[in-house]
Amino acid sequence: MRSRFIFRALNIVFAFVLIVTILASQSAWTAYARTEQLDDDEDQPILTFSTVGDSRQDPVSPDPTTTPLSGQDTIWLQNTKAWSRIIDSIEQQKSNLLFFNGDMIMGYGNANVPQNNTTVQGIVNSDLVNFYKQYAFWRGMVAGLMENGTYVVPVPGNHETQCKACGKIALAVNENAWRANMSDLILDDTRFLKLFGDQPANESVGDNRVAADGLITDQSKLSYSFDFKGSHFVVINTDPVGKDAHAPTNWLAADLAAAQSHGARHFFVFGHKPAYTYYYGQNTQLPVTPSGLDNDVASRDAFWDVIEHYGAIYFCGHEHIFNLMKPRAQLGGRSWQILVGSGGSPFEAKPSDITVNPNTDRDYAWATVKVYRNGKVKLTAYGFDDQFGPTHVIRSVTIQ
Question: Is 302 in the same domain as 334?
Fold first, then answer.
């Protein structure tokens, strides 16, 4: 009798312990699930953007893998095959923004009204008409992106602002032609609102000349900035009239300081020319001269001081190649230069060149960046080779 009582008592105790254990487990699982949900929410991207530059074709010196040029590319001066594939890929990646880092047209002429030949043929063949014709073709190629959820943000390049026959110097008429063909994109708040249910904030698109930068022409919509989704975006004109291959460093410093004061978490700067040339030759120094802002090292250093001070990321083109570098890493620098001048223009590296990164130095490439709620920034570069093989990940880095 007594043993039966003890057995029943033990059963009751066991049942009680089992119930408590189950309830505790459920509570722990609920807490864990809630934590996981919070972690998932914090680790969700709030903004995705892509960036690339240099899609224009060169009818005189095309890349050997693109010859013979199609009639279309000979007239409209785009690498249509490469650039359209990149566009399609960016659309599939559902990027909110595409920053195109200059040289979308061959340009490089004088976009003034022709004076010496006012025949129909003379006008049609003029630099002025060629500028507008090439802009129109490029705008047509990116129009689908704008209708399918990706806002295109243009960056002026030297082929847009400079005249080669004039001595590779920027002209005011070319800057005016830029505004005439890109102005509606800089910035269309109504279109932003329709695409994202939100608008840019703290826009600065007017004449952003600063006396200390020594600029002499209207820089409206050539160097400009805005905030979106907690990040600050800056576009700079690296070839303004009278200051070719120079960044508007003083304006940039003031702009980033203002962005920091109103709470921007990340700073992304886009220009055409690199601050630091990528010397891609394995056995010889190629290119043989600096390609970008490092033609004036002191000025370049002042620019990079600003980039480092704000922990900004600088995206650029001009060199028709892909490269990621931390220029001052050995000095404790934290800022990256992302070179993506690989949108279709003739590659810097010839097929016969022995290069530093042979697997990617002749890739058509772009970068896609995800900004996360928890502050993380992840950059992934994608590309495909000059034979148009499969798209692959070139490199991925996470930047806090």
Answer: yes
The full length of the chain comes to: 400
Fill in the DSSP letter of residue 339.
E
Question: What whole-number distance in Å separates Cα of residue 310 and Cα of residue 293?
Answer: 19
Residues 35 and 144 grouped into a single domain = no
The answer to whether residues 6 and 104 belong to one domain is no
Point out the domain boundary residue: 10, 27, 42: 42
Q: Under DSSP, is residue 25 helix (H, G, I), strand (E, B) or coil?
A: helix
Q: Are 109 and 131 in contact (CB under 8 A)?
A: yes
Residue 143, judged by CB atoms within 10 A of its CB (0-12, 13-18, 19+), counts as: exposed
CA distance 126 to 110: 9
* 90-127 per-position pLDDT tens digit: 999 999 999 999 999 999 999 998 877 778 787 888 88
- Residue 361 sits in the same domain as residue 309: yes
| Distances 161 to 29, 111, 218 between C-alpha atoms, Å | 61, 9, 13
Residues 171 and 193 in one domain: yes
Q: How far is CA 234 from CA 37, 154, 272, 365, 370, in A?
A: 34, 11, 12, 22, 17
5 and 81 in a common domain = no
Indicate if 208 and 323 belong to the same structural domain. Answer: yes
Q: b/e map of 172-196 (b: 16 or more CB within 10 Å)?
A: bbbbebbeebbeebbbbeeebeebb
Where does residue 139 rank: exposed (0-12), middle (13-18), buried (19+ CB within 10 A)? middle
CATH at residue 283: 3.60.21.10
If asked whether residues 30 and 133 sit together in one domain, one would say no
CA 14 to the chain's CA centroid: 64
Assess whether pLDDT exceeds 90 at residue 14. no
pLDDT tens-digit series, residues 119-177:
878 788 888 999 999 999 999 999 999 999 999 999 999 999 999 999 999 999 999 99
Beta strands 313-316 and 169-170 are unpaired
Q: How confident is the model at residue 55 (pLDDT cuts 50, 70, 90)?
A: very high
How many domains is the chain built from?
Answer: 2
For residue 35, give its domain range: 1-42
Q: Is the pLDDT of residue 62 over 50?
A: yes
171 contacts 161 by C-beta, under 8 angstroms = yes
